[in-house]
Amino acid sequence: MYLCGVTVYDDSHIGHARTIIIFDVLRRYLLSRGYKVIFVQNFTDVDDKIINRAKTEGKKAEEISRRYIDKYFNDFDILNVMRADYHPKATEHIKEMIQLIDGLVKKGYGYLTLNGVYFRIKSFPGYGKLSKKSVEELESGARIEIDPSKEDPLDFALWKFYSDQTVWPSPWGNGRPGWHIECSAMSRKYLGDTLEIHGGGHDLVFPHHENEIAQSESYTGKQLAKIWVHSGMVTINSQKMSKSLGNIVAIEQALKTWGANPIRLYCLSAHYSKPLDYTDELLKESTQRWRQIETCVYELRFAVGSGGEIDTVKSMCEESMRAFEAAMDEDMNTSLAIAELMKLVTKLNRYIAAEKLTKDMADNALPTLNKIVDILGLKIVESRDKEIEVIEEIAIRRNKMRAEKKFKEADERRNKLLELLSAELLDHKGRTTWVKREKASIWNVDNREDQVREANRKLETRLMQIVRQRNLNAHLPRDRRPSISELVDILITNRVMPKAGRSREFADTITRLGDKTARGEQITKEEFVDGDYTLAIAWFEMELDDMKELEQ
């Protein structure tokens, strides 16, 4: 399976996301049905747009392409897109392109001009078979590159001569490969002469894929692809997405607004071949669907008790799996497949709402639900062990407040937990469960050092206020500012803050990162999030709020 990838001169946008997520789901589904899938997705890293951007920024073309390849992987890793088995770059396959062009010239399909080497489209009788248009129709409707040295206006470049720095030597002269020859060379190297599945966005049908067919089949004498998959275009509030309109939605921007799972559900909400409009209404609908799914999964995980309607749940799940697979087998009808998933989620959530779900029932439902969620590439947000302990500790404190009829304080604690740790408490008869929500973080992983300085300053100010209010100034060091660890230690020693708990441990974490920023050292993403810094700050916000309420 070969997917034409992005040209790496700018950020990937929501249109790219839709195509790549569609192919990701196709791959996942084929794997789930037992097929062996070799998936190749290229990067076009030689292009006039890359070179022009490099000139504008005073950088090398490879620096520009490397930057946007790195950003691509960051965006699509967050979107839970499986990386391809091969991600070939055009610049690493010039030799294969020259070999292919040379063969086409020798067979009479390619010819030399003053500006480069071109493919003679009238030498290939099947030209237009993918777009189902005649050569005359294509000529009248296409934006054709003007070059008086071409034999025919539709003839396309295999190799173009250039005199700037980004060139490669060839038998015909220094230059760069044409766009279309890149994918023919790379797909043939990794997958052979004939591919099972080839595709990309609908805008690639003509000229890119039409030209690929012409040059590849002329060279090999074999069919290029058995199945073509083209995704419909994404519009923005019913308008075409374009730089001139200023309405391009970068994936990074969409992720900050909506999160990964709602974006995936949105991209799969219509048949892959149909256009899809990007609107707040559709994204809100996808967000609501995801809320129902993640609630259902967490509730199933936390289910207790035995017995119940086990056989009913078993047959319900078997029926849902059959319906889901039937939808996917129907030309990958992801819209219908999602509808089948939501039917299952709704039925399970009814058991949960009626307090009728048992662990035995949940254990029979989870495998099916997890399998469908995985095929769609959806990913439940998980908490680390230490975060789970904190969430459950806060839940116990809140339940105590409710038992003491401190309902306002209990609601504030619930809201604070959702705000700071994205954990929503769910009340049941005699117990409280929780769900880790996918939502935009209050933290930005890009400017970590500034955030550490600001968060530490605020925490230090609050701790100092408590020390002074309790007349504990005598315990402060006289010749320097106290660290957060020292302030917490003063409050614990003087029984202002509970000795038991995580305050000392978290204070040390916060102090350590504060010391690093003071020395001008960089904070890694792992230290910032995975190393419990953000968890520690959230802990103290809730701990100090609790102390304030106790005083009142």
What does this structure look like?
- It is a single chain.
- The chain is α/β, with parallel strands linked by helices and 552 residues long.
- The chain contains 20 helices and 13 strands.
- The longest helix has 22 residues, at 280-301.
- It has a four-stranded parallel sheet. A four-stranded antiparallel sheet has the order 3-4-5-6. A three-stranded mixed sheet has the order 10-9-11.
- It is flat.
- Helix 7 links the parallel strand 7 (195-201) and strand 8.
- Among the domains are: 279-375, Anticodon-binding domain of a subclass of class I aminoacyl-tRNA synthetases (Four Helix Bundle (Hemerythrin (Met), subunit A), Up-down Bundle), CATH 1.20.120.640; 385-436, no CATH class; 448-551.
Give the helices and strands, then pairings.
Blueprint: E1 2-3, H1 14-32, E2 40-41, H2 48-57, H3 61-78, H4 94-106, E3 110-112, E4 116-119, H5 135-141, E5 156-161, E6 175-177, H6 179-191, E7 195-201, H7 205-220, E8 225-231, E9 234-236, E10 239-240, H8 251-258, H9 260-267, E11 276-278, H10 280-301, H11 310-329, H12 334-353, H13 359-375, H14 385-403, H15 407-421, E12 423-428, E13 431-436, H16 448-469, H17 484-493, H18 503-518, H19 525-530, H20 533-551
Parallel strand pairs: 1-2, 1-7, 7-8, 9-11
Antiparallel strand pairs: 3-4, 4-5, 5-6, 9-10, 12-13
Helix pairs in contact: 2-3, 4-6, 6-7, 9-10, 10-12, 11-12, 11-13, 12-13, 14-15, 15-20, 16-17, 16-18, 16-20, 17-18, 18-20
